[in-house]
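Narrative of activities, Objective 1.

The group set out to show that a structural description can be obtained from nothing but a protein's sequence at a throughput compatible with the screening campaign. Below is one input-output pair from the validation batch, recorded exactly as produced.
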Amino acid sequence: MTDERETGDRVIHTVLPAEVETVAALHVRARATYYPDGLPDDGYDWAAAWRTAVERTDGHVLCAVERGSVVAVASFRAPEDAPDGTVKLYQFHVAPEHWRSGIGTALHAACVEQWRADGRRTAVLDVHVDNRRAQAFYARRGWVPDPEHPPARGDHHLFLRFDVPGE
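Output recorded for this entry:
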């Protein structure tokens, strides 16, 4: 994948360090939607976490920009101790006001394109059990429950798997 990809009035590109604060704010806003009482304020520094993700040399952080604003973000890399050819989608967020607009679909397609380019055959992720909207989004794209990681009693996440299509 090239560093920047244009799809109509949307551009998908690698997140720039100057965009980290915007990405962190989008992340918090999107995540808060599936917590009944809003995202817990645990003092976690999401901007620092995103800065670390952007600076990593072993992963990718992509964002979708529409009309000059970052409206979606995805972060992925090979997880530690995973089989060769596996990539983990650690974060995938779309600004709530852009849900069902095609932004998530375009960003997911860019992720899949990068996974193919990187020689990845399998993608994995975990999604919060209360995030039904995200679960439906992933299911529509071919993600299925990961048989190697069934949910444990009391776990707050579901583990999903995606077979990266060949070229």
